[in-house]
Write a structure and sequence with these properties.
Elements (H helix, E strand, L loop, with lengths): L4 E5 L3 E6 L15 E3 L4 E4 L4 E10 L14 E9 L4 E5 L3 E2 L12 E10 L8 E2 L5 E8 L6 E4 L2 H8 L16 H12 L1
Parallel strand pairs: 5-10, 5-11
Antiparallel strand pairs: 1-5, 2-4, 2-7, 3-4, 6-9, 6-12, 7-8, 9-11
């Protein structure tokens, strides 16, 4: 079993970053948990500021064990390690040196699976004691789209409000009896 370590959270996020680079202008926030960027990714927490518990595991290939049912949310995204130095990082305090590197194969593409629980305990609040847990797993893999393995209302809300997502259409106004008669006549012809 991996040992959990505390990660300081400023502004509701921490990183899985390559050499500390945060190209936030390239971030895809659409799934509300794992935010891939041109290199590395951000992880969105429930708390705004404070401490979360995290574990990290680098694998040679995709996980083979079934997913633990205690995780409330699980999302996979592709992350690029341009220098091969992918690490869990506090955006204020830097790399969490007690957690292992997540790019054991060096430079290239990795699949990042983010497991989360507790994000609804203190949403947008401050927590000096960890109330959220994260397990981050990576393995070398070609680039591919995001995959929501286990969702939540929070992820559903993020998906529904993501830029580029289709928005519900306004229903067409009701036709008058005269318009409906004309429509039927034209359809017969």
């Amino acid at each position: 079993m991996d040992t959990a370590h505390d990660v300081y959270i400023p502004e509701g996020t921490f990183g899985v970053l390559d050499a500390g680079e945060i190209p936030v202008q390239t971030a895809d926030w659409s799934n509300g948990l794992a935010v891939p960027m041109d290199q590395g990714a951000l992880v969105v927490t429930g708390i705004h500021t404070g401490v979360v518990r995290a574990t990290a595991t680098a694998l040679a290939g995709p996980p083979t064990a079934p997913t633990d049912a205690s995780w409330e949310e699980i999302v996979e995204v592709s992350v690029h390690a341009t220098t091969g130095l992918l690490r869990v990082e506090s955006l204020e305090h830097g790399p969490v040196e007690t957690l292992p590197p997540l790019s054991p194969a060096g430079q290239g593409w990795y699949r990042l699976r983010v497991h989360a629980r507790g994000r609804t305990v203190l949403p947008d609040k401050v927590s000096t004691e960890p109330v959220e847990d994260y397990h981050l797993v990576t393995w070398p893999a070609p680039r591919s789209g995001a995959d929501i393995i286990r969702g939540s209302d929070r992820i559903g809300h993020a998906l529904a409000h993501a830029p580029g997502m289709p928005q519900p259409q306004t229903p067409a106004p009701a036709r008058s009896a005269e318009q409906e008669t004309l429509r039927r006549r034209l359809l017969r012809e």
